[in-house]
Amino acid sequence: MAAGKAPPRAAILALIIAAAPPIAAAAPSAIAAAGPASGFLPAPRRLEILQPWEKRAGAKPPELVAGIYELDYERRSFAEGLAITIDDAGPNKYLAKTLDILRKRGVKAVFFIIGSNFLGKDGRPMPRAKELLDRIVDEGHEIGSHSFWHRRLDEKPYRDDAAALKAELDRNEAAVDRVLGYHYPMIYFRPPNGAHSTPGYELDRMLRERGQYLTNWTITSFDWCMRLKAGDPDRLEPEAVLARTVKQAREESGGVVLLHCFPSTVAILDSILEKLAAARGEGGALSFTTLGELLRRKYASLKAGD
Ligand SMILES: [Zn+2]
Questions:
Q1: What pTM value is reported for the model?
Q2: I need a surface site. Which of 46, 196, 246, 253 has the fewest CB within 10 A?
């Protein structure tokens, strides 16, 4: 994104980024070794972003690269703020219902959009695509990029092919612009499955160059486990999803909440928001905020040497 064309908000964020030391090109191990001694960025920590079946297979969650783009480890600065993020929406009644519930609750969210959900095979916007993306923007939410195909970006071909990775990112941005009919600068990027940090991996650097924040989450609803078949040991009932989301939000004292636009999630979204609004963290009552505000708090705490 050329500086002259950057919208005011992105320009402000770009300034903050420019003041930060270059870290994205370093390998995760180098950053981990530097740890808090770097004086600016905390050591990366591992997050539980694996699917339950991946855990059973013995997979380890990837180590987060301590990139300035990340919101997902700096929880000390969240100050009981909860930013709602909603992934994998399509142009359907579930997205409409999600927007209705958010409006009723007065909550603003970032929707991480998969472009291929919104374009038909002919490359044209699907029915309701524009109506619903317009609603996201008009009702004060934001659109983040979740890639065009929702394929793991830490696997082939993207893992070893920077051109393929760039094309995937470009394509999603073009898809959102195509639906909206104007250029929407997406400053948040969430990789499918949260997967991004293979050592030497290009995505972190590429996002930095594009002026985008790698944005994972700290509070996992595990809402996708409601979609598993009855009898599956990992299946969760709605009450369990509700309870663990609230529990984690309280324990983490705020952060970035991962939800999806699945029918089963939409069915309990109002209850989730109601329970979160009534919950308390370590420092007091939890309240809804935005990713932008969490970023501002994060940079303020880093600047203060927290
Ligand atoms: Zn997703």
A1: 0.78
A2: 46
Q: Which residues pair with 285 in a beta bridge?
A: 280
**Residue 13 lies inside a defined structural domain of this protein:** no
Distance 35 CA to ligand 1 centre (A): 30
Q: Which residues are in the CB-under-5-Å shell of ion ligand 1?
A: 87-88
Cα-to-centroid distance, 196 and ligand 1 (Å): 13
182 lies in some domain: yes
Burial of 73 (0-12, 13-18, 19+ CB in 10 A): buried
- Domain count of the chain? 1
Query: What is the CATH number for 167?
Result: 3.20.20.370
User: What residues are paired with 73 via a beta bridge?
Assistant: none
pLDDT tens for the 306 residues of the chain, in order: 333 333 333 333 333 233 332 233 333 333 333 223 333 333 344 444 444 555 566 655 544 433 334 555 555 568 899 999 999 999 999 999 999 999 999 999 999 999 999 999 999 999 999 999 999 999 999 999 999 999 999 888 888 889 999 999 999 999 999 999 999 999 999 999 888 755 556 787 788 778 788 888 888 888 998 999 999 888 999 999 999 999 999 988 888 999 999 999 999 999 999 999 999 988 899 999 999 888 877 767 666 654
In angstroms, rounded to a whole number, what is the distance separating the alpha carbons of residues 88 and 261?
6
Ligand 1 mean position, distance from CA 40 (Å): 31
Helices (H), strands (E): how many in the chain?
10, 10
| Residue 122 located in a structural domain | yes
Amino acid at 233: P
